[in-house]
């Protein structure tokens, strides 16, 4: 047999999937994988059933149906403040992941470097590597319970091969919500070195404590060099539907769309028709979601603190990246992987070991990520189990 393509050599089952397998084996509660077990809003389900029953089974345009692109363009203007030209600035794809892949294929050559901020979302690094693009991790600094961007660190990481910076806001796994000063400093570097900026804003509706989600592309002069990636998976609890999008200046969106055509032809048609018919959802949907996640965030943080972990309330998204604190080094807590196994075996609760989010796995050894996007009774039980076992 001829060998596999070299790009697959480093591919392994992720820690996240391995943890899922282990926790299912013991019938435990999975706070590891970032999947939300809440129901998709009824209006979206009903409109999609309707679309399925009334002949929406054929390919859509490669960049998505005009109704859904119009709805996204309208939301990009009114919610995100992005100066989009119109629906032609939007590419609907199979999840924001599909949009990210098409963007990577559109903008980068093998050998290019893309800066991302550590701790980072593993798929960003993995998808870049798969295309021969090198992810360069710039650590965020944690001070006073907050993860901060330091422009000097970014400046030091830029080389002649750097082609883009990638910002995740609100961030998985840190929960960091980038503020205006940080984004302006980042764009100053991007302009100085003529870099693209890719932004992942999939958690844009989960921003706590009166903070405001600021879309990088809404800053003066930023739109021209920015590809904004987002989707519906997290906001509407529909991770398995696989609908997301990229928003970019028309010339960029056109190419991303053409690549999207070659990678997947189009996103699932009935789901696009159904979602477009159901959008926009009323404001109180988003308000209620945020209120629910705020309560869940407190439950999670309090339980982790009661267990002796270091847990700061995240500014956004739905993860707590906890420090092992005083437990690190104790038997069963020698490092993050050992701690994860101990939590599964002793409490029947799974999390993700920190090394998944760091370029040098050793840097993540003091951390565990807990996802609180769970039905409230399930989350309460998980918290009780943790506190009973380790509190
Ligand atoms: C930061 C981030 N981006 C993207 C995704 C995946 O989004 P989608 O389902 O739209 O592909 C996730 C899922 O966990 C995520 O955490």
Description of the structure:
The protein starts with 14 loop residues before the first helix and ends with a helix. It folds into two domains: 6-40 and 284-390, Alpha-Beta Complex (Aspartate Aminotransferase, domain 1); 56-278, Type I PLP-dependent aspartate aminotransferase-like (Major domain) (Aspartate Aminotransferase, domain 2), CATH 3.40.640. It is globular and about 55 Å long. A seven-stranded mixed β-sheet has the order 2-10-9-8-7-3-4, sandwiched between helices. Strands 11-14-13 form a three-stranded antiparallel β-sheet. Strand 3 (113-118), helix 5 and strand 4 (134-139) form a beta-alpha-beta unit. The longest helix is centred in the C-terminal third of the chain and has 24 residues, at 283-306. The relative contact order is 0.18. It is built from twelve helices and 14 strands. Helix content is 39%, strand content 15%. By secondary structure, the chain is an alpha/beta fold. Helix 10 packs parallel to helix 12 (376-390). The mean pLDDT is 96. The site of pyridoxal-5'-phosphate has 13 residues, from helix 4. Pyridoxal-5'-phosphate binds next to helix 4. One of its GO terms (molecular function) is kynurenine-oxoglutarate transaminase activity. This is Aminotransferase.
